[in-house]
Amino acid sequence: MGMPTPTNQNCLLVIFGASGDLTKRKLIPALYALWRNGTLPESFAVVGIARSDYGDEAYRELLYDFNPSAYDEDASKWAEFSQRVHYLSADSTKAEAWPEIERRLCGLSQQYKTGDNVLFYLSLAPQFFEPVIRHIGQSGLVTEGRRYCSLTPERPWQRIVIEKPFGSDPGSAVKLNQVLAEVFDESAIYRIDHYLGKELVQNMMVLRFANSLFEPIWNQRYVDHVQITASETVGVEGRGSYYDSPAGGAMRDMVQSHLLQVLSIVAMEPPVSLAADDIRTEKIKIFKALRVPTASEVPEIAVRGQYGAGAVSGVSVPAYRDEDGVAADSQTDTFAAMKLKVDTWRWGSVPFYLRSGKAMAEKKTEIVVYLKPTPHVLFREQAQKLKANQILISIQPDEGIRLRFEGKVPGPGMQIKDVVMDFDYVKQWEASPPDGYATLLHDCIRGDQTLFKHRDEIECAWDAVQPVIDYWHNNPQDDLPNYNAGTWGPSASDIMMARDGRYWHNF
Ligand SMILES: NC(=O)C1=CN([C@@H]2O[C@H](COP(=O)(O)OP(=O)(O)OC[C@H]3O[C@@H](n4cnc5c(N)ncnc54)[C@H](OP(=O)(O)O)[C@@H]3O)[C@@H](O)[C@H]2O)C=CC1
Ligand SMILES: O=C1O[C@H](COP(=O)(O)O)[C@@H](O)[C@H](O)[C@H]1O
Predict the structure, then answer these.
(1) ipTM
(2) Where does NADP(+) bind (predicted)?
């Protein structure tokens, strides 16, 4: 974790799914950014594998043309970097493709002197994870005795990065973990969650553990509740058939993965050190402490939404059910909200409210910690107007941390109004936050698992949300769609908060 530092670890990066959106939009630009700031190893090369038919040069052109703005105005820099990027047309899910894959990887590792260090990146649809992992295991690329990750340059390593979705329910996640464990040691498995690469998520650790200001109040004695929101203005944007499949929906796509990860960092105990294992140990405890709801509790603690037609920032958006690949009577949740309890000494009865939705009024990802009122209200005449103190961590956009508290209005008398103290990331550092994929890829290459999910985190996260998913599956909702595109989601989610005497942070 932390600022990228030069690494002396050689590495051949093998991307499966190299013609896809993620590779073109995120992975190659992130590698280029790392190369530009000198944080890639000297001996480094990329080989992309997919079925589409390209030669090396045509593939480089494909990458550049997809996203020219990611590669500077200085075309010579891209030309220099891209010489390290190669392409192999092969169907990695098929055994017959593997002799050629092995031959090519061996050739490139000799050419670039990367030795036996290989980073496999599965940028594929989830149905291809298992066959490709098995083929990697059967190849000569991961051999017995080398299935570990090592920080010493002399000892070769092979690691695997696996993209989301990590399973679609507890059973499939356990199965995928088993298949991975047959080939790789846990210390060589990098389950990526791009939210953990976001600067303000990482800054949460610093906020909590490098300051004496926050930690003393970070508990059930002072915290009333915590809200974690990830609202998006986009709809499903061409991913309708995936999103509307049994593996899709906001609860699986966002809450089970990203939002629970964020929650674990908000809720964890201080680790004994910054070592990856120590941090992950504390996160795992939080995942184990998530209270698993019963079916009868679901209507009280969870809300499902689906958007109908509307407008986002003045632009018309069709109803979810009118998107390509979506069933006309779809029950899929494009919005999900859930109240969770973390059964630990620190958090007692403090509720954590999570919500995420597509086609909403605004794009924002934030954590808001609401503090309890003072034990005694001295300003009785204004008691009704006093607002809860809030610690707001804005993950994106407008990255920063804002404290909201009560202040005196200037002039005679004692008028009180809430004021904001603002740490604005861009103003403070005079730079935009780096892209999370650069941080995460760099960590994979240097062997730091801090920002990657352990198998236990994934399995417990599924356990916590599965009762809600099952309840929704067994109880179709006849009021869908129940929110218009461009709004803050279904009224049921406000009602869930109002039942607890609370409201969502919407400004
Ligand atoms: N795109 C994004 O922003 C994000 C994506 N992800 C995850 O990353 C992974 C990749 O996503 P994305 O790039 O969007 O997906 P795409 O559909 O754009 O790309 C998938 C890749 O898989 C290859 N592929 C398709 N069918 C087969 C097949 N039968 N056998 C072998 N290869 C096949 C395709 O190449 P070809 O047809 O040439 O073989 C292509 O390179 C997914 O798990 C996704 O959930 C996660 C976060 C964000
Ligand atoms: O993983 C995913 O994340 C994106 C949202 O990511 P963000 O960085 O823009 O907040 C979401 O659109 C997508 O559905 C989901 O799979």
Answers:
(1) 0.97
(2) 17-24, 51, 164
